[in-house]
Fold these 2 entries.
Entry 1:
Amino acid sequence: MFYRVSGQFKTSYESDMALFPIRQDAVLLGVILLAMYVVFPLFASEFTFKALLVPVMIYSLAAMGLNILTGFAGQLSLGTAGFMGVGAYACYKLTTIFPEMNVVVALLLSGCFSAMVGVAFGLPSLRIKGFYLAIATLASQFFLVWLFEKWAWLYNYNASGAIEVRTMDFFGLVVTGPTAAPVTQYYFVLVIVSLITFCMINLTRGRYGRLWKAVRDMDIAAELVGINLMRAKLSAFAVSSYVVGVAGAMLVFFWKGAAEPNLFDIPLSFQVLFIAIIGGLGSILGNFLGAILIVALPVLLNFVPGLIGVEVNSATLEHVNVMVVGALIVGFLIAEPHGLARLWALIREKLIIWPFPH
Amino acid sequence: MSVMERPEVVESAAVSPAQEPQKREVLLDLANVSLSFGGVKAINNISFDIQRGEVRAIIGPNGAGKTSMLNVINGFYQPQEGQITFKGERRTQMKPHLAVSQGIARTFQNVALFKGMSTLDNIMTGRSTRMRQNMFWQLLYYGPAQREEIAHRKRVEEIIDFLEIAHIRHTPVGKLPYGLQKRVELARALAMEPELLLLDEPMAGMNLEEKEDMSRFIIDVNEQLGTTIALIEHDMGVVMDLSDRVVVLDYGRKIADGPPDEVQANQEVIDAYLGVSH
């Protein structure tokens, strides 16, 4: 009913290739952005920022990075958390070595370090594929966490072995450390995530997106249409690790405030991978849907017993949560193996032609 | 089976004298090429040439080395012996993506499209070697990257028109019937604007109507775009109608080379196809 495409004609290739060929999509996005930029900051509580909005966005970004590599370029990676750690530690070192450096600049630069590490660990992908590559990235995961623990220079020889984010300001506004207001941090995360998302949409709909998808779908044919496989794969590793690294740096600087090496251990890798798979591989939107399901749902489920008037102790609640989320994941994967993004695409297709069946 | 009336093809070639001197220029020359995998000789001391503007068929029974021949031409395999000269330049080490930038495109025996992408995107990948805008402009999209995208889209739309696949432009190729997939693959090869187009069994598994369509497109590509074509095909009617010259392979050796009617009458070719009583 709301999706009516009649009367929207395309008269140029430009409009046919537009980000939103259908006007209603643009309106929908406008509403979401309005909510994110205006409505939530006005009404949301500190808890909502810290436990819901900021984590969802950071996890979405990390999953987006992984999706570039796994969903678009078809290179399975189990080392996401390691690369997030590289971003976080690089940002930490940058801000301690150059105390005058603007925190946002440090954040965006730290992605470059994880990109370099990503390319280095991506080199095996030129020779091996599939499960074997997954094992190679798993090795990078273990190696990096080991490095975070053993290389004391990385955490400035702290006795605790952890990195702690000091208070930093952005032109007078306190953005990191314990005194920073959650709403300020929320805005910084929101702007950076919006910008990177915009860039990733552009990248994936243009020449690089086609290169990556060609490599994913049939690498031999890709080579024979003139695609340099090495460049395509390594560019995917670089872009992916950059995004993942920035997400990791934000995780520590704008959310956790401190981090120990084991934060970047394999459970985090798996969580990001789950988000990407459940959201939908090869989709940008899917990462956000997946992060909402995986990160926000457990938080929201905490309130359900209270709402229906049942008292449950918190330990039981925790277990029930894990079970419910686990069942949901299995259910979703059976019902729609291509993820939430595909589910939304199908709903949208139906809405466009509704009330007619086809 | 007469797919296209052969006299017409001959006539058009004979009527335009401008094409005659052009046809004598050798585009690709293979001299004493041998390729073996371990102990198996896939190609054994073969020499032939492809002249600019012609349709050159490569035929032979199964396992004769035809596809290996195409793989040698576009650099997928490195021959152990012999030399290859393309556009007057002797080729040394070769990579497939370099062959593309030199002007050699190909299609595959089994359709090798990118299943997850739309028809349009598949054809656009054929333009990727010609796209220049770097990562920075790609990130921004609006500006140079978009202009480049639109310029290439225009060329791709011309090819889409040429091959009459406008109606499936936005369809994911995995959903297309086989005949159309083959046509999209041809479109992708044409998007590379090749000088030499290698077609590996373009009509395999097609019905009569689809074969006629494909033959028409091959002739159009050859005559209107002036593309030189090397063609592997099992349908002898098609081969005899389309090609200017035919080379016949059997067990990795060349057994005949010449105009279609001459090859057809060659005793060794008949023996290779029909077998000989011992």
Note: Chain A touches chain B at residues 13-14, 17, 199, 202-203, 205-208, 210-211, 213-214, 216-218, 220-229, 235, 239, 282 (CB under 8 Å).
Entry 2:
Amino acid sequence: MLFTSVDDVSARLAATGYLASPAVATTVFLADRLGKPLLVEGPAGVGKTELAKAVAEVAGARLVRLQCYEGVDEARALYEWNHAKQLLRISAGRDESWDEARTDIFSEEFLLPRPLLTAIRGDDPKVLLIDETDKADVEVEGLLLEVLSDFQVTVPELGTITASRRPFVVLTSNASRELSEALRRRCLFLHIGFPDEQLERRIVRLKVPGLDAALAESVVRVVGALRAMDLRKVPSVAETIDWARTLLALGADTLDESVVRDTLGVLLKHQDDVLKAEAKLDLDAL
Amino acid sequence: MSVPERLTSLVGALRSHGIRIGTGETVDAAQAVQALGLADRELLREGLAATLLHGTSQRPVFDPVFDLYFPRGVGAPDGEPADRDDLRDRLAAALAANDEAMMARLAVEAVDGFGGYGSSPASDGWSSHQTLDRLRPQTLLARIRDTIRAQGGSSGFTDRLLEDEIRRRIEAFRALVAAEARRRVAERRGTDEIARRAVAPTPDRVDFLFAGKAQLAELRRTVQPLARKLATRLAARRRRATRGSIDLRRTVRGSLSTGGVPMRPVLRRRRPARPELVLLCDVSGSVSGFSDFTMLLVQALHDQFSKVRVFAFVNRIDEVTGLLVHGTADPEGLGARIRAEATLTGWHGSSDYGVALGEFAERYGEAIGPRSTVFVLGDARTNMSDPNLAAVRQITERARRVYWLNPEGRSQWGTGDSAAPAYAELVEMHECRTARQLSALVGRLLPI
């Protein structure tokens, strides 16, 4: 058990610089209590990956990261035999019998552990982050099922390796593909949306300490208004922080039309969106 | 009701809304209740959501159902029924201060004071509509704005955002009133029944033909994410369909880790054929919600095809591909613009499939070639005129595949003036009543 209560989760995550909403804190607490993996979904830039890093820091655990991409396979996710070294070993021991060589070349020394196996072996606490799970192919999900439900990996030549200490597992997804129902059922589901106004204000104050309090409030209100518009890509928390930093660097102490118009590109990434936002915010009223 | 009973009833109600929850998840939820305790309702809500739900789209169904099984309170509030003016004063103050706890308390009082109707036990109930109609929170806008300005709570640039912010708060209050009215009705009629009947389904399960304006707007917002999902699904299908010759370079590169022995042959990727797509959409009033949505979806998928051509008809047909390309910035106005700028009607305003399809075969016949897949969208209700099967036959002969997506339920086909069975004999016709059905069909039928 890493945490004693939901408040404990919030307080300790906050100490590492991650301000968690009640939903996030509750789910992290339950994931720890029930010993289940945590599946985190949400728009880009709301701190899904950051959450795993913060939990690792709180728990004093090593962060093992598996970055998924199209075509990631068993050899890159689980383990691989070091063929080159095995060949060297065979050619070095010319005189020995096949049986001796065989038992030797399929031993731990020639095993290259990849993230999933690394997370399961050893006694030190670990946080396993499986990032952008939706980018991986469906076959990899099948691989994850065994690891995530029983925390064990089967290597045919060595036998089954079971975790002596279960890692805290976080899977993230941008929902570009529907993950399989089997995988979802093994996880606790957490949707991280955009934070409410108050929380976002605290995040901005924490990440950009030099910013004036009144300006921080205005920044968050403008971002909130942009999110209510029907845009192609609404600004995320990461963009809010970038914008706050930009304003600080420009030395702006209040918002006005020209400042907002000049820096809108930090928040919005499509020209259509910029035009729409300018019209709705009356920026061309000058 | 005991807690386990409450929990299983909640799960039962969620299942009846199409959310698949297994016994294992119910057990997890019970463990979550044990770990979190019952002291904090919001923590409990998040805990149950984390253990029971599997996707973001299920949350709008979960929240009202949770409010019914784990209500904020029981029965009527204490104290005298509130006076209307007094309630409006306090509501204005709460909205100005954005005090959510106070707003929730006022919603309880408002429903108690103004929501009740009927007197006999069989016909009485609580109505959020009646409450809001009497209370009229939207008329408080100017007053709240002036209060906030007077307090100096808003000045400079952000002043222009104020009205929209207050409108959002009033919207939140309306939702609170609706939830409270549901709770009061549930106490009278039984929670299970209300949880199954009075909670709106997720937008992707709403029938196209009966969707309201707000639901259609909701659906339009799902077009981009849905298109992205379908694009990944199409890419996966393309990958699986790869059967080709050996790619020597990549096979040799892959064999390095096995000491130069090519254990795993790598096949050469087939050049994707990028098929052509032709859409024929009935945009007459009855099915326009369905056609608009499908057109937007196909437009969002346009980079998957070498060519997409879209034709709209009521009783005459016209090409609207150009309108659609420029329509990405303003999806709401798409339907109106198509009807304004394209020639879709002749002598009368009701739809006529026979004439429109005949005109298509005659004027735009060259749009269809051996590589094109044709989708016809419409309910096949020809207003008693000739269905013109010869034109359909001509189209099927020229195209690679022809599909017909019908937004009416299968049981309605052939009733009244529907020519669906006649068309279904010539082309493959699919029932497509909801966005969920549409995305399943599009993922399966689209050519790769």
Note: The first strand of chain B starts at residue 116 and ends at 117.
